Amino acid sequence: MRHRGILVIDYGSQYNELVARRVRQAGVYSEICSYQQAERELASGLVEGIILTGGPLSVYQEGAFPLPDCILASGLPVLGICYGFQLLSHYLGGKVGPLASAEYGNTAVKVTASSPLLSGVPSSFNVFMSHRDCVIELPRGFETLAVTAGTPNAIAADEGRHLYGVQFHPEVNDTENGQKIIENFLFEIVRAPRDWSMSSFIDQAVESIRREVGDGQVLLGLSGGVDSSVCAALLSRAIGKRLTCVFVDHGLLRKDEASEVVKTFSKLELNLRYVDASEAFFSALKGVEDPERKRKIVGKLFIDTFNAEAAKLGKVDYLAQGTIYPDVVESGMGGNSARIKSHHNVGGLPADIGFKGLVEPLRYLFKDETRELGLALGLPADIVFRQPFPGPGLSIRVIGEVTREKVHIVQEADAILRQEAARAGLDREISQYYVALTDMRTVGVKGDGRSYDYACVIRAVKTIDFMTAKPYRLPFELLTRIADRIVNEVDGINRVLFDCTSKPPATIELQ
Ligand code: XMP
User: Fold this and answer.
1) How confident is the model at residue 352 (pLDDT cuts 50, 70, 90)?
2) Least confident of 26-35, 41-50, 337-346, 488-497
3) So what's the pLDDT on residue 337?
4) Is 299 touching ligand 1 by the criterion CB < 6 Å?
5) 432 close to ligand 1 (CB < 6 Angstrom)
6) Residue of minimum CA distance from atom 18 in ligand 1
7) Using an 8 Å Cβ cutoff, are 500 and 476 in contact?
């Protein structure tokens, strides 16, 4: 542990990050680790309470993840959620078995006994259940606190030993009073201090960056995205001019994005090297239509340009990266959850420069905390709330060959969409939205003449994890206003289409 707080033991639930975030939202630090790492984390002396997450296995199944002895030996308060509750019960001699029929979704819970865990919680409320097993017999010393129609022990506790279990998921939005139950565990049972905030984080992070880097020089690749921008602002606060940021402009960014990044970071106390490499990118992309080839060309040229710029700097001691906590957890380094995606921030960067090490000051922050930190460091909201943008940029939002002219057309149309979405108050509500340019030309009338111009596509989606997505229902009046503005204001487009497919089977990007 890096800071005193709650240790979340990850038993493979898809909600493990959410559990840790809920704890942090309450102002208490939390970290996620696997059961194999629990002993080491406990040895830090900073753990004040433990949460065992849910998981997809049955406790009586071969290969089920165990409860390490160090958890109960620590004497710390424990809250088990779903599998975590069943595991705790199983370990202490209770009986866990399958339900007659699995309980899934909204379920009514009835409170049958009082407890500090349920302080201020009404006697019946709805919770989100997702389980096939339940605790049939509680271990000695435990008492039932609540039941559902199908679960004899929906909530239970051994108050004497500060051990608690809930069969449902208090961390998900669909559970009424879920945050209250988590906060009761934190403040009524663990009695944790509320000492986790972004302003306290800044002081600690600045101090630890200074300690780590000493008087060394640090290099950071700035993309203009949220993570690298916040990382730059934090490092600049800590080490000022000893940070050099290289911003490679491939000419495939959204309208005004490059100038905005340069303007923002020029104001900070750091060395900013802006490289306009657009000519090289457009000539490498000439005649290329295949989306995968475009990605490869942009990716390789980007790294080559970055490396060439870095080589000009002379001696650099550390390479900084805007890796955030979900990158760490999802690449399998945090806990036991399935390896969802590998993290490629490091891939291809200049190993031959001979860095002493990597600096990743956002490594323990969630995305929303990263944004909060960005605001606390004074970054503009336009950068902090920027929607995700793919590395290959507009090259994959121009179908077919990418030219400067087509990129200009799509930038102008996209700017209108963004402006109108913001005006309608939807810019933070839609997960990702953009305009892409098709390579289809259609006939239209403009003024008195016939036009034969490109059709563009508006894509707007709502998603949590970007693995699946639903089309966002833009109000029709808004859509038509955007379409009118695009065909009137952007030369080269005479038709606007709306993409209303879900992912899957479509993807979020068109290419
Ligand atoms: P898809 O199109 O796969 O997009 O549904 C899911 C998310 O990933 C982004 N994306 C990329 N990001 N390099 C990136 O850095 C890429 O090649 C790339 N392709 C897609 C996309 O914008 C969306 O947020």
Assistant:
1) low
2) 337-346
3) 54
4) no
5) yes
6) 390
7) no
Percentage above 70 pLDDT, the chain: 95
Q: Which atom of ligand 1 is nearest to the CA of 509?
A: 2
SS (H, E, C) 162-213: CEEEECCCCCCCCCCCHHHHHHHHHHHHHCCCCCCCHHHHHHHHHHHHHHHH
Cis peptide before 98 (omega within 30 of 0): no
Nearest atom within ligand 1 for CA of residue 469: 5
- Residue nearest atom 12 in ligand 1 by C-alpha distance: 390
Mean pLDDT score, 446-465 = 92
Task: Give the C-alpha distances (Å, rounded to integers) separating 227 from 23, 114, 144.
Answer: 22, 44, 45
Q: What is the pLDDT of residue 334?
A: 58
The tens digit of pLDDT for each residue in 123-132 reads 999 999 988 8
Q: Fold for 198-384, please state it.
A: Rossmann fold (3.40.50)
Give the CATH architecture of domain 397-499: 2-Layer Sandwich (3.30)
| Amino acid at site 142 | F
User: Which amino acid residue places its CA nearest to atom 10 of ligand 1?
Assistant: 390
Above pLDDT 90, what percent of the chain? Answer: 85
Measured in Å, residue 229 CA sits from the centre of ligand 1 at 19
pLDDT of residue 342: 36
Its CATH class, for the domain covering 5-190, is alpha beta
Output the pLDDT for position 338: 44
Q: How far apart are CA 24 and CA 6, in angstroms?
A: 9
Q: Is the CB of 343 under 6 A from ligand 1?
A: no
397-499 matches 198-384 in CATH topology: no
- The encoded tokens of residue 501 equal 């497919």
Supply the pLDDT for residue 344: 37
Say yes or no: CB of residue 508 within 6 Å of ligand 1. Answer: yes
All structural domains of the chain with their residue ranges: 5-190, 198-384, 397-499
Tokens 């990850």 belong to residue? 10
Q: Among residues 129, 15, 11, which one has the least CA distance to residue 63?
A: 11
- Enzyme catalytic residues: 82, 169, 171
**pLDDT of 289-315, one tens digit each?**
999 999 999 999 999 999 899 989 988
